[in-house]
Design a protein that fits this description.
The structure is a homodimer. In chain A, the strands form three sheets. Chain A has a seven-stranded mixed beta sheet, sandwiched between helices. Chain A has a four-stranded mixed beta sheet with strand order 3-6-4-5. Chain A is an alpha+beta fold and about 325 residues long. Chain A has ten helices and 13 strands. Chain A has two domains: about 140 residues, 2-Layer Sandwich (60s Ribosomal Protein L30, Chain: A); about 160 residues, Phosphoribosyl-aminoimidazole Synthetase, Chain A, domain 2, CATH 3.90.650. In chain A, helix 4 crosses helix 5. Chains A and B meet through helix 1, strand 2, strand 3, strand 4 and strand 5 of A and helix 1, strand 2, strand 3, strand 4 and strand 5 of B.
Chain lengths: ~325, ~325
């Protein structure tokens, strides 16, 4: 017996009525496939991400409005990391019997809000029941002219290393939740409802600024590692430059702990990119335009895969735990 | 402790090495997004489907090779139903701790086999752990020229109603599994490893034959209902024309039960389409070319939503249970 009291088709009909139109989406929810007509000459960028109950979220920590927002944002963040303009999202949800229609409605509301803010539309999906927890899978499609697409492969020695926003907020909130404490509201919001840096990613890509870019989902060091491997370069991070939010500093942890969290904490969903020194002026202009700090935190070096950390010019040890890995020992 | 004994990145690396190349996929697994370059002027068709343990499959009924094949096939079937050529698939899997590396390898093998057979490639995805069962979400991308795309909306009174292959095999196998019996191998295979009718769907679309088309996942009557609603027409089905496999007939159930299963049994993944009488010659040619029977089972009528069933020219009652619905009463 399901508390939703409605069939799959009714859920789809309700959701369909709330979907916005788009010049790119010729046909949205309601046939075997969605039909999209992409702008001529642009590349299609596609990403898919799952959010699984008890792995990526806990129902006693998040409400469904936040969960809907986050489900859209983490996928849009991958599009942002390649400089793409989001176009259409596809949402699959497996729904356990104890979920109420109100919860499901809140979830869709949050999801559609974030789609709307990024000018993407919900164009299709799947709903089914679940005998376990809630499983969510989102696929996001974006487009970009070839010249605006940023991969992980182009970082050069001498390039600056930049991050948007602030680091470590989400990780602190998660750590407090896991130890039974209530995180400060600003930090909790950063964990439960991360913002995808869609506009800044697209602006950077269009301006041809980044030589490599990635979003920080597994922690700065872990995700920087992907750029270093792909670009066959190394990096020096000046940890005293890492951007920390006033809310994170106000927690009163010592600097070592704060920087460690900024280096290894996951789910910031900020953008990490590399750019040559002459791009600094353009980066500053974009940061001003989108009203988001972009901070230079280090420099790309020559030795493939080597990362050094400095604090006030002196070398520091690398944290042993570099970031979140599914299936890693002890997980 | 996870029996896989390897991290997410190692799983991705192994899978990446097994992915085929494609002229459409400029960049597959390994960055934030896949990059696709679609043929100029073609439309993009996208579908997403979940397969959830204990809802869509049971590990004591299927092995992981079959599950991998089915996960690809059910999505390719949606592309086939609109006449699209499959291009790229995205595979997200949530993996519980008790899954072995051998199971996962079999799953990927089955999935990649079916991709290969339809000339589509695996271009991206997501892997994560699960505290519940296995959750699989596949997104399939295909392309078609606008003239080849078939929707559900174009059925006209007087059009013939056609189905590919045979009906009811999968439903019988499922019924036997649910009652503890071992189904005949041919029927079990139809349930565990359905074939997506990719080639025939594309051929029909390219030839401009169908006025409406859908794949039969919820049962002939339920899926025909979607065409009737979308096209605002009715239908008469001649149940003695329903194509039944020799293996299904050999089971020895009486005709009433056989036809009921063919009308309401889910997961046939055959194509159901409508076409004007003058298309019969082209339909026969395509059936011969792809070596798959295409059977006329009825005629589109004028009264919106009305379905009549006949047997040897006499009216028959409509089965009460029209097809599988998630969340329906008692589910």
């Amino acid at each position: 017996m399901n508390r939703l009291g409605q069939g799959e088709f009714e859920i789809i009909e309700q959701l369909k009525a709330r979907c916005e139109s788009s010049p790119v989406v010729r046909l949205g929810i309601g046939d075997d496939c969605a039909i999209l007509q992409l702008p001529p000459g642009e590349l299609l960028l596609t990403t898919t991400d799952m959010l699984i109950e008890s792995i990526h979220f806990r129902r006693d920590w998040t409400d469904f409005l936040s969960l809907g927002r986050k489900s859209a944002a983490v996928n849009l963040s991958d599009l942002a990391a390649m400089g793409a303009l989001p176009r259409a999202l596809f949402l699959a949800v497996a729904i356990p019997a104890d979920l109420t229609a109100a919860d499901l409605d809140l979830f869709f509301t949050g999801f559609l809000e974030v789609c709307h803010a990024s000018k993407a539309v919900l164009a299709g999906g799947d709903t089914c029941s679940s005998k376990g927890g809630v499983s969510i899978c989102v696929t996001a499609l974006g487009t970009a002219p070839e010249t605006a697409v940023v991969r992980r492969t182009g970082a050069h020695p001498g390039d600056g290393i930049y991050v948007t926003g602030t680091l470590g907020d989400s990780a602190l909130a998660l750590q407090w939740l896991m130890t039974g404490r209530t995180p400060p509201p600003e930090l909790l919001k950063r964990h439960l409802e991360p913002t995808a840096r869609v506009e800044v990613g697209r602006r950077l890509g269009t301006a041809g600024v980044p030589t490599a870019m990635i979003d920080i989902s597994d922690g700065l060091l872990a995700d920087l590692g992907h750029i270093l491997t792909a670009s066959r370069v190394g990096a020096c991070i000046e940890i005293d430059r890492l951007p920390l939010s006033p809310a994170l500093r106000a927690v009163g942890d010592d600097d070592h702990l704060l920087y460690d969290r900024a280096l290894t904490g996951g789910e910031d969903y900020e953008l990490l990119f590399t750019a040559p020194p002459e791009a600094q002026g353009e980066i500053d202009r974009i940061a001003t335009d989108v009203d988001l700090p972009i901070t230079r935190v280090g420099t790309i070096s020559e030795t493939c895969g080597e990362v050094t950390l400095t604090h006030a010019g002196s070398l520091c040890p690398i944290p042993q735990h570099k970031g979140y890995k599914h299936f890693s020992a002890g997980a």
